[in-house]
């Protein structure tokens, strides 16, 4: 029997260490987003009807591999799910919920009360005049109760009210506000809670780093809680650009909402690389501008330096989310791959944008690996 020399033993140990180190590094590299972020916060995506139905097979594969939460992109909005006062259309919403259950995903319903993509009949009578407060309350209650009860016990939480506040902190002058004033918000949360007492309830809005909107939402949360009305989280829509908002201001809002007694969700996250035709437009879905070629500078792909800057900016935000994982329960990107994003056609149709974590071939962008590595170190 041969005796190993000290030099041989040291060499073998070095080889073993190298193999183990390589294996660990490889395991880290091959982790998915949902694996790396487990125990920190849910990582979600908006799902469209092509994905919920299984027609977009590549998109479905990304969802199954990378995400553990989903939100309805359009199928639960009023004009889709409740087109006529006495008629609901649950076909696509049922398909979406079934998709989430089949793939063991946390499901968020979006959205119960929103002034945009609202069924035309909802707030007016047969002559187009505003209905009375009593009629609107009944319509709101019927709408919320019917939808929430249908999915009781199957949906984790609901975006109850969407985009009710302006940048300066004033209430948005919607039909709901015209007829019911500020009271429509607590009523919506009350009706949703009565329909499913176990479901989480959220308020969702964009440009949440704006001081006026921040202060108004904090006041809203405190008022709801003072009245004993359930609200679990504030959804901060992450429709961000390369130069807005300041990360420090975004962080300030996160901390303010948490201090008010709710959790924080980062919702509708996408990072546009394109110039804005109006920096004041926020994420107002009704905004529309005439197409101009100079507003579509990357129709053939991103230059390397632009892609690198995008990666750094998106990674900076995920660093912020990981820093405050104690107050964040979910981060949701608004779409699976770049071609799915509303950013391509808003607020100017015909543009090509690159705002999501996966490219048009459904491949992860470099930022995905950076997020995973950052998460593994936290």
UniProtKB/TrEMBL annotation:
- PANTHER family the record matches: ENDO-1,4-BETA-XYLANASE A, GLYCOSYL HYDROLASE
Catalysis performed (reactions): Endohydrolysis of (1->4)-beta-D-xylosidic linkages in xylans
The EC number on file is 3.2.1.8
Q: Where is the active site?
A: 268
The record, for Gene3D superfamilies, names: Glycosidases
Q: Specify whether Signal is a keyword of the entry.
A: yes
Q: Does the keyword Signal apply?
A: yes
Q: Where is the signal peptide?
A: 1-27
Q: Which UniProt keywords apply?
A: Carbohydrate metabolism, Glycosidase, Hydrolase, Polysaccharide degradation, Signal, Xylan degradation
Similarity comment: Belongs to the glycosyl hydrolase 10 (cellulase F) family.
**What is a single molecular function from GO for this protein?**
endo-1,4-beta-xylanase activity
Q: What is an example of a Pfam family matching this protein?
A: Glyco_hydro_10
PROSITE patterns assigned to the protein according to its UniProt record, in alphabetical order: GH10_1, GH10_2
Question: This protein is called what?
Answer: Beta-xylanase
An annotated GO BP: xylan catabolic process
């Amino acid at each position: 029997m041969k005796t190993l020399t000290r030099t041989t033993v040291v060499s073998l140990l070095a080889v073993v260490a190298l193999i183990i180190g390589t294996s660990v590094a490889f395991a880290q590299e091959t982790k998915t987003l949902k694996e790396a972020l487990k125990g920190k916060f849910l990582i979600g995506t908006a799902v469209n009807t092509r994905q919920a139905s299984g027609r977009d097979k590549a998109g479905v594969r990304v969802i199954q591999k990378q995400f553990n939460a989903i939100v309805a992109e359009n199928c639960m909005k009023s004009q889709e799910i409740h087109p006529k006062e006495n008629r609901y259309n649950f076909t696509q919403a049922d398909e979406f919920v079934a998709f989430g259950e089949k793939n063991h995903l946390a499901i968020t319903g979006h959205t119960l009360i929103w002034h945009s993509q609202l069924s035309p009949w909802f707030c007016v009578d047969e002559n187009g005049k505003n209905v009375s407060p009593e009629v609107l309350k009944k319509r709101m209650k019927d709408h919320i109760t019917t939808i929430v009860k249908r999915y009781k016990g199957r949906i984790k939480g609901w975006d109850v009210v969407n985009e009710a506040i302006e940048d300066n902190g004033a209430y948005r002058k919607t039909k709901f506000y015209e007829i019911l004033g500020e009271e429509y918000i607590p009523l919506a949360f009350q009706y949703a809670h009565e329909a499913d007492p176990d479901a989480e309830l959220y308020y969702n809005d964009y440009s949440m780093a704006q001081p006026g909107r921040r202060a108004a939402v904090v006041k809203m949360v405190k008022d709801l809680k003072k009245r004993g009305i359930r609200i679990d989280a504030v959804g901060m829509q992450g429709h961000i650009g390369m130069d807005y908002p300041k990360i420090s201001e975004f962080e300030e809002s996160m901390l303010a909402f948490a201090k008010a007694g709710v959790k924080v969700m980062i919702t509708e996250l996408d990072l546009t690389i394109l110039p804005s035709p109006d920096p004041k437009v926020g994420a107002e879905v009704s905004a529309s501008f005439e197409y101009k070629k100079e507003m579509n500078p990357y129709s053939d792909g991103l230059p390397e330096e632009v892609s690198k800057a995008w990666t750094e900016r998106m990674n900076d935000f995920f660093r912020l989310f990981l820093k405050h994982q104690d107050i964040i329960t979910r981060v949701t990107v608004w779409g699976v791959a770049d071609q799915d994003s509303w950013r391509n056609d808003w607020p100017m149709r015909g543009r090509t944008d690159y705002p999501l974590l996966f490219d048009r071939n459904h491949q992860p962008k470099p930022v995905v690996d950076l997020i995973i590595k950052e998460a593994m170190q936290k």
